[in-house]
Write a structure and sequence with these properties.
Layout: E1 26-29, E2 47-54, E3 61-66, H1 68-73, H2 76-85, E4 91-95, E5 99-101, H3 125-132, H4 146-159, E6 164-173, E7 176-187, E8 202-208, H5 227-234, E9 250-253, H6 266-278
């Protein structure tokens, strides 16, 4: 004789906690509450206005836009980390248990006492670039301005192994280009040009090793008057080549050069190109 198993009664659901605050209410964070993204930065005293009330679970969750007083007096490491990680530094989401009503004058913000800066990692591309530019893991990658390009030039001059083979894409027309292999002899000295005006750092190209008819952009930088011709050619306005120029070295932006996977220079050039084209 078969018997049916007794079904267990479902556990009663806990009722949702009704929100204490509404949109437009002014609140501040209780002392001792850490930032959810950066646990070494406390948020005590941070004040703002509720812009949204959500309740994905039992307890309400509030979106808060920080007050100007909070933005002006927070620790600068918070802004740097938000910029580094692409986070919104002007607002946050907090649980109800972390908040209290803000009904008075601003209170002193709780400041971090033990900032934990992660060591730079050689396995992280951004960290390798930070190391070259003298930054820490808390710093966002800076723009490719003249000062930082000079630092990169010094580092690459000391660590790239010259000469080496590389490839670049030469535009032949609309939606048409051609891969050319070149011999990179070294970096052009910064005394000869302004890297911000010439697509970053330039490298000397001795010759095209694939084909004599593959056009290599000419950009002699022995005097600054030739830079205009270089930029015109990079934009597609090529001028007839003089016979006396054919035997002289050419130059190309280093950021346009690609090297093979097994090249000892691959990581250095890939890191530089990534930073140049994205910052």
């Amino acid at each position: 004789m078969s018997t049916k198993k007794k079904q267990k009664s479902p556990k009663p659901r806990m009722p949702r906690v009704q929100p204490r605050f509404n949109v437009g209410d002014r609140v501040r964070v209780k002392y001792g509450v850490p930032d959810p993204d950066f646990p070494d930065i406390p948020l005590g005293g941070w004040a703002g206005t509720i812009t949204e009330v959500g309740q994905p679970g039992r307890f309400p969750l509030y979106s808060i836009e920080w007050s100007q007083f909070t933005l002006d007096n927070r620790h600068p490491i918070f802004r740097k980390r938000c910029e580094r990680d692409g986070l919104d530094e002007t607002s946050s989401r907090q649980g109800e248990e972390d908040l209290e009503a803000d009904i008075g004058d601003p209170v002193p913000l709780e400041q971090p006492t033990n900032i934990v800066t992660r060591p730079l990692s050689k396995n992280d591309q951004d960290d390798r670039i930070r190391a070259i530019l003298g930054l820490t893991s808390d710093d966002p990658l800076p723009e490719a301005n003249g000062e930082n390009l000079c630092k990169y030039h010094e580092h690459l001059t000391a660590h790239l192994k010259f000469p080496f083979l590389g490839t670049y894409s030469k535009e032949l027309g609309p939606f048409q280009d051609r891969k050319c292999t070149v011999n990179v002899a070294g970096l052009v000295a910064l005394d000869d040009y302004d890297p911000q005006e010439c697509y970053g750092l330039l490298c000397n190209i001795q010759h095209d090793v694939d084909s004599k008819d593959c056009f290599v952009v000419q950009g002699r930088v022995k005097d600054r008057g030739t830079l205009l011709g270089f930029i015109q050619r990079m934009m597609g306005f090529s001028a007839p080549q003089k016979e006396e120029d054919v035997e002289e070295d050419c130059c190309l932006p280093l950021g346009d050069i690609e090297v093979k996977r097994d090249s000892p220079n691959r990581k250095l050039i890939a890191d530089y190109s990534y930073w140049l084209h994205n910052h």
